[in-house]
Amino acid sequence: MAAPTLLYCVGATKAGTSWLYRYLHDHPECEMPAVKEAHYWDTFDPDKREKQLAAYRVRLRDMRAAKSSADAEGRGWQVENMDRRINEMKALIAVLEGDRSNDTVYTAWLLDGRASAKVVADITPNYATLCDDALARMRDLSPNTKFLYLIRDPLDRLWSHIRMQARRQRQEHEQYAKKSNNILYRILNRGQETHILERGDYPNIIRKLRRVIPKGRLLVQFAEDLFTPQGLARVCAFLGIRPVEPEVAHAANEGPEVVMLDKLRPRALGMLNEHYEWVARNVGPLPQRWQDNLARA
After folding, report:
1. In the chain, what are the helix, strand and coil shares in percent, each to the nearest 5?
2. Which of 16, 203, 231, 240 is an S-S bond match for 278, by CB 3.0 to 4.6 Å?
3. Could you tell me if residue 256 is inside a domain?
4. Which tens digits make up the pLDDT trace of 28-46?
5. Which residues contact 43 (CB under 8 A, 6 or more apart)?
């Protein structure tokens, strides 16, 4: 039996990666880890590794608490599900803590119990920020390695990322809408929160991916088209699996809606204008949502 296709979905942040994870998780020809984002390739730096491990240990503690509650309330099916998630998280923590002179332990974690699947995946948007050498090491892990980069309308992606940041950082006394617009203001006027822009720098990221990943092993896909039969069929054909009807028809983790201030919107569009135009020239015809925002710019 052929080895599974190893898919790396490298972003973009807030461009449908959680929806894709759920779709592949439910697909009969795929086997997905219980942890969506492994953060293996972006945590070789000791400080980044310790920060990620701390986050995973908190998540592991929460999982154990959820399992105890489910057990106490007699929800056996949830206990079984939590056991699987706990065991995979413990194994991933061991991978990140262990020897990384080669990547065999990571590969074993990713393929454990999944070697008969057509596709397994590590969906970690932060991988789009990696350097050429790191991406090449990922590429060479298996001859069946493929890369998928989802791109969403630049303004929509930026605003969704900002709102996610606001939810995470908001103090009790702060208003969510005001904090979101304050973050955008700082980006536009003070050059702050640069990581938000870096995650959606389509020209630089796509050029880098095309430089490192051979044609046929990289797919750049509009997120807006991912939710259409044609777009989903394109992704499935790329992965060598048959299209199936998704159980969820819209993006996950979108969060509460907040209105961007009218005085900030034109400046944000102006800042992103070159991204719209570059993608139109170098990726393909823009979805209608992109065209509408580009016209406003």
Report:
1. 55, 10, 35
2. 203
3. yes
4. 999 999 999 999 999 999 9
5. 49, 52, 96
CA angle (192 as vertex; 124, 207 as ends), nearest 5? 45
CA dist., res. 240 & res. 257, Å (int): 36
Range(s) of the domain holding residue 13 = 5-44+100-296
How far apart CA 205 and CA 129 sit, in angstroms, is 7
Please give the single-letter amino acid code of residue 207.
Answer: R
Which amino acid is located at 35 in the chain? V
Which two tokens mark 80?
């079984």
Phi, then psi, of 8 in degrees rounded to 5: -110, 115
* CATH number reported for the structural domain that contains residue 11 in this entry: 3.40.50.300
For 180-208, the pLDDT digits (tens) are: 999 999 999 998 889 999 999 999 999 99
Residue 220 main-chain phi, psi, to 5 deg: -100, 120
DSSP string, 39-101: --TT--SHHHHHHHHHHHHHHHHHHHHHHHHHHHTT-HHHHHHHHHHHHHHHHHHHHHHS--S
What total of structural domains would you count in the chain? Answer: 1
CA-based nearest residue to 138, from 5, 4, 8: 8
- DSSP secondary structure string, 212-269? HSPTTSEEEEEHHHHTSHHHHHHHHHHHT------S--S-SS-----PPPTTTHHHHH
CA pair distance 94, 99, nearest whole angstrom: 9
To 5 degrees, how large is the angle CA 38–CA 138–CA 209?
105
Query: Could you tell me if residue 49 is inside a domain?
Result: no
Residue 176 corresponds to which amino acid?
Y
| Rounded Cα–Cα distance for residues 12 and 193 (Å) | 16
Q: pTM score, two decimals?
A: 0.93
